[in-house]
């Protein structure tokens, strides 16, 4: 499912032009790794096409990222190494912007910092909302399976009791 997260919505036209002017286009083939768990991330990535998987060390996928998503914002905000890896699932393109350039611009233009952090906050809030919806859907599916299982056992028990001696 494509998501509706677009950090660009919170930025001005001049912010976007600046990001475009300093960003470098990066292309990944399917299977190529953008982020490795435990290794620091020096850039912020704006996905412009394609699809990436966010995966745990055991290979299980916890999320998918698409056009309009940002990658590396957790390292940007927290300065901790990532706990997950991010791997392209199809040919993917993105704009890579070195964190240092963004921090320098914050110094030169504090209003840009305010807009940027607000846009990131909205983006992260939307991502959390989606995660909550996914957890809720998984819990409901689990409940549905448990109920179906219970009903099947009850039917079996009735059958067994009826056909007993
Ligand atoms: N649960 C998640 N849902 C969506 N994206 C995630 C999730 N966890 C990590 N990421 C992305 O994967 C990136 C890994 O590097 P960062 O921690 O810097 O930033 C992280 C986010 O951009």
Supply the key terms.
165 residues; alpha+beta; Jelly Rolls; four-stranded antiparallel β-sheet; elongated; binds adenosine-3',5'-cyclic-monophosphate
Name the CATH homologous superfamily: Jelly Rolls
Give the names of the bound compounds. adenosine-3',5'-cyclic-monophosphate
Using the coordinates shown, work out and report the CATH topology. Answer: Jelly Rolls
- The counted number of beta strands is 8
From N to C, what is the helix and strand string? HEEEEEEHEEHH
Percent strand:
15-25%
- In terms of quaternary structure, the protein is single chain
CATH architectural grouping: Sandwich
Q: What would the principal axes of the Cα set say about the shape?
A: elongated
Q: What is the total domain count?
A: 1
Describe the structure in brief.
With 165 residues, this protein is of the alpha+beta class. It has helices at residues 13-22, 73-78, 99-108, 110-162, and strands at 24-28, 33-35, 43-49, 52-55, 61-65, 70-71, 85-88, 92-98. Helix content is 48%, strand content 22%.
């Amino acid at each position: 499912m494509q998501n509706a997260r677009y950090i660009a919505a919170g930025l001005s036209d001049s912010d976007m032009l600046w990001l475009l002017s300093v960003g470098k286009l990066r292309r990944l083939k399917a299977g190529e790794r953008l982020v490795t768990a435990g290794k620091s991330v020096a850039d912020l990535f704006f996905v412009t096409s394609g699809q990436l998987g966010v995966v745990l060390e055991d290979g299980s996928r916890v999320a998918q990222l698409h056009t309009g998503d940002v990658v590396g914002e957790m390292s940007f905000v927290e300065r901790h190494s990532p706990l997950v890896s991010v791997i392209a699932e199809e040919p993917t393109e993105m704009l890579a912007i070195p964190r240092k350039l963004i921090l320098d611009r914050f110094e030169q233009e504090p209003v840009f910092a305010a807009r940027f952090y607000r846009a990131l906050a909205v983006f992260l809030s939307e991502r959390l909302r989606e995660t909550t919806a996914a957890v809720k859907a998984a819990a409901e599916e689990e409940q549905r399976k448990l109920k179906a299982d219970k009903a099947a056992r009850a039917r079996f028990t009735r059958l067994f009791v009826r056909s007993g001696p």
